[in-house]
Amino acid sequence: MEREGSEPARWLPDTLSRTSSGRVRSSSLLLMGVVLFMVISHVIQLWWLVLPSGQFKALHLGLGLIVIFLLQAQLAQRQVWRWAGWVMAAAALACFIYVYSVFDALVSERMFGPSLGDLVVGCVLLVLALVAATRAWGITIPTLAIVALVYGSFGYLLDSDLFYHSGIGFERLISYTSIPFFQGLLGSMTGFSGSLIFVFMIFAGLLKSTGGIDFILSVSGRLSGRTAGGPAKVAVIGSGMMGMISGSTVANVASTGSITIPIMKKNGFAPEQAGAVEAVASTGGQFMPPIMGLTAFLIVGLTGISYPTVMAAALMPALIYYGNLLIAVHFTAVAGGLKGIDPGEEAAQTLRLGAEVRQYAHLIAGLALLIYLLVINVPPAHAGILASVFIVTAEFAKQLFIHRARPIEGARATCRRVLSGLYEGVGNAAQIAVVIAVIGIIVDMMTITGFAQKLSNLILAMAGGELWVLLLLAASSCLVFGLGMPTPAAYSIVAVLGAPALVEFGVHLLAAHMFVFFYANMSAITPPVALAALVGSKIASGNYMATALRATRLGLPGFVLPILFVVSPELLMLEGSWFDRALAFLALLALFVALNAALTGTAFVDGMSWPMRGAMIGTAILLAWPNAAMRLVGLAVIVILFAMERHRASRRHPIAAHDVM
Fold first, then answer.
1. Which residues of 552-571 are buried (b: 16+ CB within 10 A; e: fewer)?
2. Average pLDDT of the residues in 330-357
3. What is the pLDDT at residue 26?
4. Exposed, middle or buried by CB within 10 Å (0-12, 13-18, 19+), for 166?
5. What is the per-residue pLDDT across 133-172, written as a single tens digit (0 to 9) for each?
6. Which residue from 24, 320, 443, 514 has the fewest beta carbons nearer than 10 Å?
């Protein structure tokens, strides 16, 4: 199972456990059956809506728990843990059957008080979810959920105005965790997980199993691999593209980093630098449209703002973030005298770009279809299903063409790849479903007890009417509450705690949610925890704190841009003309280019003089000012400064100055 800071589990059918005679174990066959049933049942529900919302949420969480516990039974080394997995999977199935069978009574007769059976099932479901979340994500999130429940029950013992509330009795407390109130584990967040996140995890699994990672890394290498610091640029582009469809920054670092980090080190990057680049690139994938690490749909659900508006708002910040990272990598490579991938190396011995595009054209078409369907406001679940069906169909046609002399072999190859994608997609979706459900308990406890509203009021009071103080307090709280959590879970908490204070102060609703969303994600590279940097440093065999500090500097836009969302809403395409938006984009991109040049002391070849570095920083401040005239002046000055620096470098090193670009 995937734990904090570890590599995600592999859910592949060709690695199923077998007996000594070569036969697939019964646990593996059962797990495969549950995976297929989960996919089919979700597709039927999301397309035809055959079950009421409460029953579907119970189905989604129940099957997710069963998948996790069956995997535990399959992978356990000791017999006692195998039996524990089987027992907990059976208990999860029993809980779902109970909710399904008495659903009408739950919603019509027991909304004001649970029966004894409801309490028993609620307690069992709570324990199962906490155990599964611990297995999948470590102890942090379940511990927070337990603290939230204790606080909900004993808040009346606290003297603080912030924490005090009248307390919640045991029966009501358990009712809030699942049934009969259908909150907490079976609340709206589990509904989001089942109706949106699940579909896109399946899509991501199919994309990867049909060659998505190979294609992305290969094309990235062709586009940028031979420039200065090419392997790091491959990591930036590849991890960014994969990160946008992954709900976990840590999982993305572990999967793509195992490929990109060794290549960067071989090219001459220090272990800490290689780990930092991968961590920052994977973190930024959560901002990248169209999927934004699956959180785009949570933002839509919590704000009521249309999906195209959310996607458009994220576009320019994401491009600035990655533009800055590519430039920072380039400047670092120039400063270290690092070159690109040698065309004679194995990493460069790949198909020509045109041949690669033809080989993986169905993946490009699948992504394009998904984006098109989302933009024209097709329901996201339907869009994800259609795009997944397209990839499966196209892969089948491709394999039949490759094995046209042996069509049976082509069909088998398709089945292997599709089952592999479904296994990985369902496995990751089950883990996210469980952690989202547990986060639902935390969010509901903060809301029911009034803590979230009181914290929002406290932040406003501490700000004293000063916007910059409010932004600082909100950013700090988001960095803290986002620690150690997957993207959807981190956003779900900070959206309740941080966004209301900003909205009440007068910040635009979408700007407030994008503000807290960015900072919650940046906690993945912020010391002292910095889980993404931790995983990157482990893979690179580098120093953890040095990796985290470098990641913080490389990820500078992620810390600065959210503040600019508030003072320059045209960056989110919320205000202003197209000229204003384009100017804001160019000015802020130039701002980070200038800061990178000043921090590294390198723009082309030579070390930059201190007066020139000071001029770069001063111009960056000018570009940050939310005024069109000031930004135009700043852009002109930056062009002049870089022209001067390039001229100086070309005079001293005429050949190298042209080669590094």
1. bbbbbbbbbbbbbbbebbbb
2. 59
3. 67
4. exposed
5. 998 877 878 998 999 999 999 999 998 888 999 999 999 9
6. 24
Evaluate whether 59 touches 41 at the Cβ level (below 8 Å): yes
**Measured distance CA(49)–CA(43) in Å, rounded:** 9
Question: Could you give the angle at the alpha carbon of 53 between the alpha carbons of 49 and 57, nearest 5°?
Answer: 110
Sequence-separated (6 or more) residues with CB below 8 Å from residue 75: 1, 17
Backbone angles phi, psi at 655, to 5 degrees: -85, -50
Q: Which two tokens stand for residue 643?
A: 């022209």
Cis peptide before 407 (omega within 30 of 0): no
List of residues 6+ apart from 15 with CB closer than 8 A: none
Tens-digit pLDDT profile for residues 258-285: 777 887 887 788 899 989 999 999 888 8
% of the chain residues with pLDDT over 90: 37
Three-state secondary-structure class, residue 18: strand
Looking at residue 472, its amino acid is L
Own/partner long-range contacts of 544-551 (Cβ < 8 Å, ≥24 apart): 546/272, 547/271, 547/272, 547/275, 547/276, 547/279, 548/276, 550/272, 550/273, 550/276, 551/275, 551/276, 551/279, 551/280, 551/525
pLDDT at 332: 77
Report yes or no: 493 and 439 within 8 Å, Cβ to Cβ.
yes
Backbone angles phi, psi at 48, to 5 degrees: -115, -10
By the 10 Å C-beta count (0-12 exposed, 13-18 middle, 19+ buried), 650 is classed as middle
pLDDT number for residue 8: 37
